[in-house]
Write a structure and sequence with these properties.
The structure holds 2 protein chains of 2 kinds. Chain A is of the alpha/beta class. Chain A has helices spanning 33-44, 52-59, 67-81, 105-109, 117-120, 141-153, 164-173, 190-198, 201-204, 217-225, 238-265, 296-317, 336-359, 394-409, 417-421, and strands at residues 7-10, 13-16, 21-24, 27-29, 86-89, 93-96, 133-137, 157-161, 178-181, 207-212, 230-233, 274-287, 320-324, 328-333, 366-382, 387-392, 414-415, 428-435, 438-443. Chain A contains 15 helices and 19 strands. Chain B is mainly alpha-helical. The chains are: A alpha/beta, B mainly alpha.
Chain lengths: 444, 111
């Protein structure tokens, strides 16, 4: 019997939309409602990369939600569907990669790394501003309809508000790339909205073009002083509208890229130096078993896939990422038990990744995880040429050492004596000297 | 010189840019909102509310320009610039021109 239109089959994965059920290998898998909605959205849009904003809007409509929640849900889906089922596309979002059921059952069951990671990453300078989320705030229906129509014809997703107050509420509830703002509006005018935006970091991320029929230079100057990106006189010329919208979105995209680059380099921002007492340092590092067996690009792809999964696992446990080197990371935990839980999640994710790589005939990765407890200083070393996060202290060095030993000995993780002491009795076993002053324990 | 009711080039440009079907929707939105704005002009005049008066005149002007309704837009612009007036004849003239403008717009949209 062929599946109903409400049932989608991707090899071993069966998604029953009407029943809100997921089956893997014929077994029902318990997904939370958010997890199911997320999977449904990814599957529905599997022909393209879906942005994080779009997913947040679909899964948590009307709510302001931290990205961590999305990462946790993605991580949960990967555990169920396989690590490669959902690809992370750096800076763009996620894509569901499993191929739908075909006549050839065995072929359909093969995991499909349908899209190479490099093919999903836009070339430098490429613009994806072609479909932005735009809000039009104008009290006049004719103007509002006309602006919305013009923007929709440009390919943007458009919402509208009838006054400044409504626009402000919508800006705080949803993520927009651009606001087209009228000045003379009831309840809250455009100037007031611009004033509020100037004092709100989240709202300042939204580009603003003021559209108004108010004459004279002074109102234009006032809008620019209040932070508007551009000004268009009404009636708005469609050619000018397109040019200004594209220009504003391109500038916003540049700003977003810079902020994203900075965030990637310094995930915690430019922190003041902090003395962290009694924390558990987790160090994880990946490598191919034999560098000569892979091309440089394959080695980097392996590190990219692994790092994606590890950051998701870390976010799911609330670990604080203090260093990220591409092929390794260092994170801090207040609770050693949670650190061990994170390390187990990482190990599990790595196993999934390796299973998929074996299936595809690719070399697997070797991972080492080390945990050490004690006091460290974290902060940013800020030079004129560049900045970098630093984690200074002997626990950081011990965790590094233990991660190397873990990879060398094929252990899932190794912990030092202080971390071992912070765990419930009987959790650790097999102490051995890694060096004269470093005892390594395995975790049961 | 009396301005034409509608500037056909502007109207056709609007149709070309937004789509002829959509312009019909737009005209009906204008027909729905504009009488209320004329009422706002009269009320503001009676209440001596300069801000409300200028705001209504401003919106009417803006809509008129959008459709290429040059005569109506010019009359609304004159009201906006002149500001609050107790002389209602200018408002009566705008109201009369609005009816003619809407009829002309609907006729052009259907041709």
């Amino acid at each position: 019997m062929s599946p109903s239109p409400q049932t989608l089959v991707f090899g071993a994965v069966e998604l029953r939309l009407d029943e809100r059920r997921l089956l893997v290998d014929g077994q029902a898998v318990g997904l939370g409602s958010r997890g199911f909605d997320l999977l449904k959205a990814l599957v529905a849009k599997r022909d393209r990369v879906v942005s994080k904003d779009e997913l947040l809007d679909e899964v948590w409509p009307g709510l302001v939600v931290e990205e961590n929640n999305l990462q946790v849900q993605i991580s949960g889906l990967r555990r169920v569907l396989g690590a490669g089922a959902i690809a992370t596309v750096a800076g763009l979002g996620y894509r569901f990669t499993l191929a739908p059921e075909s006549g050839d059952k065995s072929a359909a069951r093969t995991p499909q790394p349908a899209v190479a990671i490099e093919a999903l990453v836009p070339a430098a300078g490429a613009t994806s501003a072609s479909s932005a989320r735009v809000l039009v705030a104008d009290d006049n229906k004719v103007n509002r309809l006309l602006l919305c129509r013009s923007l929709e014809l440009m390919g943007h997703r458009v919402s509208s508000a009838e006054n400044g107050r409504q626009a402000l509420d919508m800006l705080r509830q949803h993520r927009y790339g651009l606001l087209l703002l009228d000045i003379a509006m009831p309840e809250m005018d455009g100037f007031e909205l611009l004033r509020l935006r100037a004092g709100d970091a989240a709202l300042r991320e939204v580009a603003v073009i003021v559209t108004s029929a108010i004459g004279g230079v002074d109102p234009v100057a006032r809008c620019i002083e209040l932070g508007a990106d551009d000004f268009l006189h009404k009636p708005v010329d469609p050619v000018l509208l397109r040019a200004r919208v594209e220009s504003s979105l391109a500038r916003k995209q540049d700003r977003d890229r810079q902020a994203e680059a900075l965030r990637r380099l310094l995930p915690q921002g430019k922190l003041q130096a902090q003395h962290r007492v009694g924390v558990t340092v987790l160090v994880a590092r990946v490598s191919p078993p034999d560098l000569s067996a892979v091309t440089p690009l394959e080695a980097l792809q392996l590190a990219t896939s692994w790092s994606t999964l590890m950051l998701d696992a870390l976010a799911g446990c609330g670990g604080e990422l203090v260093q990220f080197q591409g092929d390794g990371l260092m994170a801090l935990f207040d609770d050693t038990g949670v650190a061990v839980q994170a390390a187990r999640g990482m190990t599990e994710m790595t196993s999934l990744l390796n299973a998929e790589r074996r299936h595809l005939g690719q070399p697997v990765c070797v991972v080492g995880v080390g945990l050490a407890r004690g006091d460290v200083v974290v902060g940013v070393v800020d030079l004129a040429q560049r900045s970098a996060s630093a984690c200074i202290g002997s626990p950081a060095l011990r965790a590094e050492h233990l991660s190397l030993a873990s990879a060398r000995d094929g252990q899932a993780m190794l912990v030092d004596a202080l971390a071992c002491a912070a765990l419930p009795a009987g959790c650790c076993e097999g102490a051995c000297h890694e060096s004269s002053d470093l005892l390594a324990y395995r975790v049961r | 010189m009396t301005l034409p009711l509608i500037d056909p080039r502007r109207f056709e440009a609007l149709q070309a840019n937004a789509g002829a079907d959509f312009v019909l929707t737009l005209i009906e939105a204008f027909a729905e909102e504009a009488p209320g704005l004329v009422t706002q002009l009269r009320r503001a005049s009676a209440d001596d509310d300069a801000h409300a008066f200028e705001s209504a005149a401003h919106t009417l002007k803006s809509n008129g320009v959008a459709f290429g309704a040059v005569r109506f837009a010019e009359m609304a612009r004159a009201l906006e610039w002149q500001g609050l007036t107790s002389d209602t004849s200018a408002i009566d003239a705008v109201a009369a021109t609005l009816s003619a403008t809407l009829a002309a717009l609907r006729a052009m949209a259907h041709t």
